[in-house]
Amino acid sequence: MINHATTAFSPVSERQRFIVKKMGLSDYQATWQAMKDFTNVRTADTCDEIWLLQHPAVFTQGIAGKSEHLLYNTAIDLIKTDRGGQITYHGPGQIVAYLLLDIRRLKLGVRELVRSMENAVIDVLEDYRIKAVARVDAPGVYVDNAKIAALGLKIKKNYCYHGIALNVDMNLTPFSYINPCGYQGLQVTQTKDLGITDGLEILSNKLANQLQEKLLKGISIYHHDH
User: 107 — alpha (psi -120 to 50), left (phi > 0) or beta?
Assistant: First the structure.
């Protein structure tokens, strides 16, 4: 079941006004259902939220994903979900940031939303003097051609959910059981292997702050439309 012992922390500036919830280790299926439920009942007055959490080991396959990208049968569950993209792996030691946003209110197109998510991770890594880049042909964030963050979204009307996953200090072996994001032989990496000693708590806060900064950049004052 989903861990409902959530906590929120105050954003770092007046402009950063998403509700940020830390949800610990949370079951994928239950979290996915919670995102759908939140999106189905939200209104023009509903605050946008960022959910920070980890998942127990699970493979997830995007709505247009191909099952042949799972190379081996393992004990790890494969869940076919409604985000974009192919197959990826989630597990403990990976920060997942789910973005439950009114993208029309934020004045964000899908391409700009994806770029904002990628740039948030790039700037977190830049704090540690690590050069990361995004790729036009394969959404996500890369360090020396190894993927460190994967993303996928579901857009429903003017709302989005799902988000971005940053590898921090996890068992990377299950990535070798798949073609990550549909790319054969794609290498993956994580912050620990790049020499970053800060752990999940610090990096979660930094990622949430960077996401808010990037996503709110398009509007001078965050407000509710009536």
Answer: left
Q: Give the phi and the psi of residue 180 in degrees, each rounded to 5.
A: -55, 125
pLDDT tens sequence across 4-41: 444 444 444 444 479 999 999 999 999 999 999 999 99
pLDDT: which is higher, 133 or 4? 133
| R_g of the chain, CA atoms, integer Å | 16
Question: Residues with Cβ < 8 Å from 223, sequence gap 6 or more?
Answer: 105
Contact status, residue 54 vs residue 103, Cβ threshold 8 Å: no
State the pairing for strand pair 58-61/133-134: unpaired
What whole-number distance in Å separates Cα of residue 205 and Cα of residue 172? Answer: 23
Residues identified as active-site: 181
Residue 82 region, left (φ>0) first, then alpha (ψ -120 to 50), else beta? alpha
